[in-house]
Automatic annotation (TrEMBL):
Entry protein name: DYW domain-containing protein
Lineage: Eukaryota, Viridiplantae, Streptophyta, Embryophyta, Tracheophyta
PROSITE patterns: PPR
Mapped PPR repeat ranges: 165-199, 235-265, 266-300, 301-336
InterPro entries: DYW_dom, E_motif, PPR_At4g14850-like_plant, PPR_rpt, TPR-like_helical_dom_sf
DYW domain ranges (all copies): 481-572
NCBIfam families in the record: PPR
Protein family according to the UniProt entry: Belongs to the PPR family. PCMP-H subfamily.
GO biological process: RNA modification
Amino acid sequence: MKASVKTFTHFSSAYGFRSYTISALADSPMHKIPFSLIKLIDSSLSSFAPTTTLLFHNFSHSIDCNICNTLIRRYTDSKNHSYSLYVYTQMRKLNILPDSSTFPSLLKSVAQLSCLEVGKSIHCSAIQLGFASDIYTNTALVSMYGICQQPDDARQLFDEIPERNVVTWNALITSYTHNRMFREAVDVFREMLGCGVKPGEVTMVGVLSACSHLGALSQGKWIHDYIVRNRLRVNVYVGTALIDMYAKCGDIDEAKKVFETMGPKNIYTWNVLISAYAMNGQGEAALQTFDRMVVEGVKPDAVTFLSVLCACCHQGFVEEGRRLFSNMINEFRLQPKIVHYGCMIDLLGRGGFLDEAMEMIHSMKLKPDAIIWRTLLGACRFHGREELGEFAFRKLLELEPTNGENYVLISNVHTQKKKWTEVGEVRELMDSSGIKKIPGCSSIEIENAVYEFKSSDPLERGHEEIHKMLQDMKKQLKLAGYVPETEIALYDINEEEKEHNLIYHSEKLALAFGLLHSSEPTLRIMKNLRICQDCHQFFKLASAIYERNIVVRDIKRFHHFSGGLCSCKDYW
């Protein structure tokens, strides 16, 4: 589907020239320049390349456009982006006209600094100076608007420019993926092929990233097939993107196959494979890959240790996790970040070592953030530690008073103890503060189309067949031993009402739809929240009774259901 765009035709007329435009700096007294830009320039002047300021001050008559372009490229390539802007302002002050080589690097710096208004004014200057048709400038502008979170403007410009090359198409695809508009990114890729433009490696990395986030396995496989059919080079970046796509779509066997057949690998390739094993419930394979990586002489980094610690969390490998955390600090000399501590708190808490988890929180050098306290609260729910859970919840109220997930977690702690008064008080606090629980949402891909479902009563129009299918499934599953986990319900209502609410969780709606409309042996479902205990039991039995493999990707990990069992071994 084509992205909607704004109705203006020309950026120059839409934005105009105002007092903050770079092109006007030469003629403007300093008090008219925006303070943010003055501060940006001053900070770079005081901290970097004083020789450049002397160059402009003492040799201004000898400086030309080529020298300025060289300086801009130098500062952009070395990530000193504010100084690139400084050079450009000096160019304009000295009435040195930019050429087509000035804008690509300059706009890259603008994008990295997220200076959208400056980027707009440079765009206007480029048009005024006659570069409206320059392919390199336009490509840099598309990229700049995308990185500055203006994907509609990027698309508007893309549609207006007279000439495009593969880099221009890549810039638009990246604009959409950068702004999490993954379906639009895939649509642009197909549009690109329809226009007869041959994609390159950068294109493939961008569109495979989009498929990874969508969990669109069939589309990802089609792209992989396209790479093979057209003999595109599978370099380290494309190979890593393929591994990541297969992993995030739940096809760990294909991910491993790509890893083993690709040529050179870098640290990112190893990290992606270890993470793939971790999120798909193959903790042993993740640890074996880590050991193999070290033996082959690849030095693990902070991301590597995050992945192996996650693998330990998902499998309950407490001792192994303790050892790896210690090795990270003492053997590999890496300082743990807050995410590493979060993994350790999760590992210890879910393993029942809540007191040790609290000791780690008190002893760590970093200030505990909301993720640390929420992880501890989740462990308290798992083990019924109400008092400690209340303590963690109070910390969360200080850090994230409007996050509905925290209220749901503490409600679950009280629900386990059947303390309905406390549950009611939490609900009242949420209502009085206007805090809403995030609604459950699941999707399933069937024949290249993605269908989405929200947790609700499917008696609404068009859902009658799903309602009937769910009722039939519940009868079949009860005969096989299914008992609804009504104790997780957050309201003190009768059992029948609790069962009614549980049966319409979004992942069950997606499953029923998939069983009705797909004959594929494997159904793949994505969920925006953590799968609940009732749905987990429901899916295990459904995989056996209906003889289908069911892969569920929730916010935490993958669950592979087959023959009445789950890959997580009921530890999640």
